[in-house]
């Protein structure tokens, strides 16, 4: 009788063991607040807006132990608008992330699906907007994607293990088109962390981004519709005590652009005198700082100088953007915080006689009717 009981119990023991080696986690962020823009097409705007310091989201992530240090992993992450319940990222069910892969502590991780590129994975952490500040503190038009304006579809990604503080990785995104290079993307990046020091660099190239709906960068998600997009940059952060200081440089080159910031409303850039736009270039120089005043309260500041160039057959112009961002955040609990932000932008330098001459803070209600714009936000954020 005892042998029979043991024989019946063995399968249940193994089933319980296998179950313990697998997990699925539900998580999310709800970020909702009040926005004020002093000039949107000549008028002030008062709005309730969702997902600025962090995009509002919910997601599922899971792992299964396959033995020998190998795990199967997946993530499905949905973005949504708290105000009206609408899906984010162009109406996609899992528009933020959707991938499956294999992870090994010795050899690294391979993931397949809709994911972040290497600029977001490695370099963005050294910027204010990609770390603690979010959307309102992005570089003009988020031209370097450090605020993750677009994700990359049809993507194979590799991420290395941590090698004495150094990590690296890369992505390749298929066009899924008969024209192999028509709307494809590839990127590489890496970072080194040691104590309070973080150094990072990344490069991305996309061919015909946004020009097909099913390619690497979808037409309703691209920050630029163009023949080619190239972005590279490097950054460094250093933390000592409660203070963190950072410097970041990024360079964006858009060849044969037809429109920009298609996620909003900025749209086409038409050069004066009947010319044709041939290139847009942005160089962003950012300094940022954050100070943890108490364990539950921090303040942060950022200044970005952006040197832009508009090349057209009718001539070229070089506007300059000065952007200042401020933030204060107070934690009411481990999962709930209240924050306030302010951003100011001034456009100076060479006039293009296009929308590039007008200030536009990412996340503001619209493009300013002048070269100046101010935006303010007060919000609550809850994590689960």
User: Element order, helices and strands?
Assistant: HEEEEEEHHEEEEEEEEEEEEEE
Multimeric organization: single chain
Straight-line distance between termini: 49 Å
Shape descriptor reads: globular
- Share in β-strands: over 45%
List the uncertain runs.
Answer: 1-20
Give the spatial strand order of the biggest sheet: 1-3-4-5-6-7-8-9-10-12-13-15-16-18-19-20
Specify the CATH architecture: Beta Barrel
Cα radius of gyration in angstroms: 23 Å
Mind telling me the CATH superfamily name? Porin
Characterize the biggest β-sheet.
16 strands, antiparallel, barrel
Number of helices: 3
Query: The CATH topology, please?
Result: Porin
Number of domains: 1
Helix and strand content put the structural class at: mainly beta
CATH class category name: Mainly Beta
What's the structural blueprint in terms of helices and strands?
Blueprint (H helix, E strand, L loop, with lengths): L1 H19 L1 E19 L2 E8 L6 E11 L2 E10 L17 E8 L3 E8 L2 H6 L5 H5 L18 E8 L6 E8 L10 E11 L2 E11 L16 E2 L2 E13 L2 E13 L3 E2 L16 E18 L2 E16 L2 E3 L1 E13 L4 E14 L22 E12 L1
Antiparallel strand pairs: 1-2, 1-3, 1-20, 3-4, 4-5, 5-6, 6-7, 7-8, 8-9, 9-10, 10-12, 11-14, 12-13, 13-15, 15-16, 16-17, 16-18, 18-19, 19-20
């Amino acid at each position: 009788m005892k042998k029979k009981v043991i024989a019946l119990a063995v399968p249940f023991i193994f089933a319980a063991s296998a179950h313990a080696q697998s997990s699925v986690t539900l998580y999310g962020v709800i970020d909702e607040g009040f926005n004020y823009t002093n000039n949107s097409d000549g008028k002030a705007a008062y709005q309730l807006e969702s997902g600025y310091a962090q995009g509002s989201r919910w997601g599922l992530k899971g792992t299964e132990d396959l033995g020998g240090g190998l795990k199967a992993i997946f993530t499905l992450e949905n973005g949504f608008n708290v105000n009206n319940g609408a899906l984010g990222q162009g109406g996609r069910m899992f528009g933020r992330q959707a991938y499956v892969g294999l992870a090994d502590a010795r050899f690294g991780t391979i993931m397949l699906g809709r994911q972040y590129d290497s600029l977001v994975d490695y370099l963005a952490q050294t910027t204010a907007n990609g770390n603690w500040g979010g959307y309102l503190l992005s570089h003009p038009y988020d031209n370097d994607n450090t605020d993750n304006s677009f994700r990359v579809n049809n993507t194979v990604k590799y991420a290395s293990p941590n090698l004495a503080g150094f990590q690296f990785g890369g992505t390749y995104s298929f066009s899924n088109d008969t024209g192999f290079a028509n709307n494809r993307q590839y990127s590489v990046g890496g970072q080194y962390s040691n104590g309070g020091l973080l150094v990072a660099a990344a490069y991305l190239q996309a061919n015909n981004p946004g020009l097909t709906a099913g390619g690497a960068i979808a037409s309703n998600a691209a920050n630029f519709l163009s023949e080619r997009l190239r972005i590279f940059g490097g950054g460094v952060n250093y933390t000592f005590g409660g203070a963190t200081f950072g410097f970041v440089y990024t360079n964006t080159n858009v060849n044969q652009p037809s429109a920009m910031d298609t996620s909003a409303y900025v749209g086409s850039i038409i050069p004066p005198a009947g010319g044709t736009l041939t290139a847009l270039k942005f160089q962003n120089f950012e300094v940022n700082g954050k100070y943890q005043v108490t364990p539950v309260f921090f303040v942060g500041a950022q200044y970005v100088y952006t040197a832009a160039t508009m090349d057209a057959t009718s001539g070229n112009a070089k506007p300059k953007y000065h952007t200042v961002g401020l933030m204060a955040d107070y934690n009411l609990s481990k999962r709930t915080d209240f924050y306030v932000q302010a951003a100011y932008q001034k456009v100076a330098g060479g006039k293009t006689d296009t929308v590039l001459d007008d200030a536009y803070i990412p996340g503001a209600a619209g493009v300013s009717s002048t070269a100046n714009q101010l935006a303010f936000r007060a919000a609550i954020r809850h994590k689960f």
